[in-house]
Amino acid sequence: MKSSRFKKWLPNLNTRVGLVWASVFFIWLKTMIAYFFVFNHLHSADLQDYLLMIVNPIGFTAIFIALSLFISRTALFYTAIGFWNFFGTLLVYGNVVYYREFADFLSINTLTGGAGMMGKGFDYSAIPVQPLDFIYWLDIIIIVVLFLLKKIKIDQEPYGRSKSFRQLTIAVMIFMLTFMGADMTEHRLVSRQAQYDDTYVVRYLGLGPWLVTDGWYTHVANEARNMASKSDFTKVQQYIAANRYLAPNVSVYGKDKNKNLIVIHLESFQQDLIDKSIDGKPVTPFLDSLYHSNSTIAFSNFFNQVGQGKTSDAENMLETSTFGLPTGSLFQSLGSTQTFQAMPAILNQTEGYSSAVFHGNVGTFYNRVNVYRNMGYQNFFDQSFWSLNSQDSTAWGLKDKDLFYDSVPYLEQLQQPFYVKYLTVTNHTPFTGLTENELDPNFKTVNSGDPIVDNYFLTAHYLDQSVEEFFNYLKASGLYNKSIIVIYGDHYGISGSDDKFYLPYLGQTNVSSAPLASSSSSSSSSEDAKASTAPTWNDYDEAMMQRVPFMIVTPGSTDGYINNEFAGEIDVMPTLEHLLGISTQNYIQFGQDLFAKGRQQFVALRNRGFITPTITEPNPASNEFYDTTTGQQITPTASQVAYINEIQTKVNTMLNMSDALNSEDLLRFYTPAGFTPVNASNYTYTVSATQKRLKQIEDSLKAKSTSLYSENHNVSTQSLYQSDEPGMIKSKSALAIASSSSKGGK
Ligand code: MN
What is the model's pTM? Predict the structure, then answer.
């Protein structure tokens, strides 16, 4: 280190220009750690890709930091350097933490939408910080200490205008060269089309350019909205008529006409939980029984299709049969102003359905309170309706057993037929918040080495019990036979850094609760053995884990079965509407009735990958294809290439059309025949307004009121509800009724 020859190559931290390039070096170094050790989707088979990854942070970072050289005033110069180091590190580290959880990069929408998500209900302890993370901040700490100890001197001398200009020119040239190299990959990275996948942009241009271009396109999206016209809508309309709409299957069309529709949204519930047991004890015995019941049409290859908007994307697909946005949450970014032609409004206007959502969290979460008004939901029972105490809620809101129980006084006042949705919350990462006496003493979870995975089975088991209790109430109250109940999982529960701990349980129906590394030898050597024999986790496994339950329970029917066709969340809306006897022909819906004839089975993923019964492309950025049935990576044959191209074109067109429709708010140009546009100002969800409204409706309808409460001669049915939840009211008189008509399942 003392060698003067070596020292010549190191930036002299005692000079301003030396500090500038040292700062660029350290931010580059941190970016490399993140690129190679955290952002594993960036990895590629192509050497040129790696070269671009290695150089791309340099030019962009250097431009900003070199600009500081133009500052003459000493204090201001060092403040600017400090700011850029802090900001650059924060950008890298923020992405590291975000990526660990979501396998994705921060965008303008996640950052601004994040503000709404960081309020009540956000569990800060769930942020995946790791002990080694201090290395991202180490250089800043050391340099500050060296300044304080006066080991590094303050350079009072301004660098000079022309010399500063020369340094800036070097920075700009490095950036231009990187940019040209990136452009030669032919991904047209700064074009709108490339923006759907930030992986490309980060791989070739870097984190900073991604955030800048994303910010630009967020702005452009707002502008696009102002520019769009009726002719843009007509293109989408023609596409839907020619490519997506399928006439209903006459054998099932309208078979559930006028029945109540109850949708139960199973938070973070993966299909692989179904039929799984731990040491012989089923994780979700009740949902298993529904899955196999002859009153249930269940789907075994039903995939979630959510993007960054997660839960809200799933809801958007079920309510509108359009996709979420390429980045961010549609609810959050557009939902306050969007024109929706959604389930509650259509069901109300065609068949007179009343509507409600029951949710344990606050109404502002994902901007639901505004979205639901625009969708025409008459009632939204959010956290303000429940008397919460710390015992009854987790970070995500009222616990599921309480939610179902507490919903009854409102559910029974809704005019029938009704369309209601229950958004459960307890089975939400990090799957904590249940107390000891809420856990089933007869059910023990695994010991995976990762508390997220261990707890996932516990909250899933709890959710299963919650649903069973609610079903028992539906049976006891008589609602059961007048309803169809739709159960679905919104998206995966396990992701990112937790995958490898979940892998041993995936695909196995019965698993052991014992720790995996059961060897009696020293823990470090058994750890090594485990690592060397551990199966690898790839993008195919990740894609297959996107299966979620979708079950249509039709009480009284006996023609249920398990359908193995490939389908996704986008298809739910037209399927349900046709069962209720509602035509979808005049609506813009991207999904297809799962009972209609002529469906081509392919599932479009939000990242533009796809899953078909034969071929899976988990992520177009990595250009890898797998045999869907065997999981083997394939080199496509000529006929497979033709098939892949056909499906890829269909996926791209569908997502482009959906994105145009939503981002440009094209439905404002179109009112389907028989549909009245929703006026959001007609809906208020406050507790007092809601209670008043429900009573007024019953009073004005008198004998014609079809609410369960009216049918039950103005006596509440809540006493029929049984729960093993501690502290919940249990009615002894109701026990006999419920136990005779329920329990056990088929
Ligand atoms: Mn969710």
Answer: 0.77
